[in-house]
Amino acid sequence: SGIKKNEDLPWEQRDHALFVAYAPEDNPRYAIAVVVEHGGSGSKAAAPIARDIMREVLRLDPVQTGTVDLAAFVAR
Hints:
Blueprint: E1 17-23, E2 30-36, H1 42-60, H2 62-65, H3 70-75
Antiparallel strand pairs: 1-2
């Protein structure tokens, strides 16, 4: 009786975790959606994965690193 918490449920009945984000905030060029099957909370399971991926994407971004002329990049 009562409501079971996600961790008390059998694996196949647990909630999926979803987190969606974009970056950079002021001029979005990238979007990401992370789904963790049976991961429970999106903020606990999917958000850290999205954060790590987006950090790497922005680290390699030619506009952020200054390896590309911004005007030429936008003109494409």
